[in-house]
Amino acid sequence: MKKAKKSFLSLSLGSILAASSFSGLEAAKLSDVISNATIEGFAFGRVHALHGANGDGARYQLRFKPTLTSGEIYGVSASAGIFFSKGSSTPDNNNTDNDIGGSRGDTIKSPVDRFNIGDYYITFNAKETLGSKTTIRLGQRSPGTPFNDNNLDRALGVFIENNDIGAYNVGFQWWDTWMGDDIYISPPTGDITYTGAGIGNNMFMAYIKSGADFTKDTGLSYNLYYSLIHRWVNAMIFGDVAYTMGFGDSSLTFTGQVSFTSIANNPRIFSSSKKLAGLYGSAYNYAKNRGMYNIRVDYKYNFTQATEDGSSTPVGFFGASAGFAGSFGDGFGTLIDNTGGLKLGGHLWNSFSGAEANGFGILGVGGFKNSSIIVPYVKAEFGYKKFGTALDIAYINASHFFFLKKGSTGTNLNTAQGILYENDNYVKAANFLDVALSATYKFTDNINALIAYGYAIGNPSFGRFRFQVNYLF
Description:
By secondary structure, this protein is mostly beta strands. Helix content is 12%, strand content 48%.
């Protein structure tokens, strides 16, 4: 009995020690969750003012988007983020007189005003447990693709990427429900159902792209994405390739980009927004097969300064760029966002309209049948330590272009080819020069400011002033 009792006591002591060790391990892991947590994101405040024959008004915009990610436990982490947006970046014959929302805080007065949970997902990193550079994310997040605005677009689904082979990383995404920001703000304000709308068409995406180390070693980078949107898009394709040659303190980069989208026969959008759900009716003369391309060359020369150990460090640079973007097929709306991963030139033409209808978005003006655009552009920039400046010049010739209210006169192609935006804002041909001068100053690694002035010379004709302060987490 004594022997048995001794064995029992030894077993009990061993169990206690094992449990204690396990508890200690779990406590250490829990500590890692907190101590290794990271925060990413941004906050900014900006002011825009328009003037001239086809522009008028002043607006401000505030935005706050931090995302907190926990440390990992056996490769698993959790992320959650806040999204706050107040005000509009589009002065459309209006001003900010009533935007304070009373004396007791902000109120939701329009679809651009938002305060909610933006990102909410879990991540499994297989490196620790399986020895594979595979990442799986489940939940709601910014998709991180060249089709999207990766600050504002959101998708709820599965996101998988494998980086085991540096020459090519592969990935897959499935979105069960989602919304692109350009799509969200495009219907007219008369459609009250769109204020909480999403899109239920399932999105399936596969891609292959170069790894960062591979690009660093070879100077070559590439992306190839293919997507299918159930009952809406048969194929949405984006591809680009870039090669950088370095010589001394200089580098030269050649970039080619192309995107193509084919709309399904009898397309349908599943959405609680009546406007989106009924968009592809008989009135909408939409382009079925849309294409765009962008060819660009960038030159950069680094100014260096000798250090005490005899090496040198960059203290500034001079850069020059030239490119040409255009369209093919019967339209040019090929992306979910108006810009996505495109490296375009110009300052005004693709960012002043609020709905960003003038770029390459699937529901922008490039979605109308027989729409076309060309955009040759050049840029010169200079930076020294914390200061930078740039001159952007682009020429825009578009068969379909989105005009703000003050410039909305004459023939309205929007009415003739299917109403997509408010009737107060016309869609018609445009031909103008976009010229802009900007300056930046980096106060710290986290805080910087931008001031810019640009003018559209031709049709439309207006000037825009912008001032913006950014904080990066």
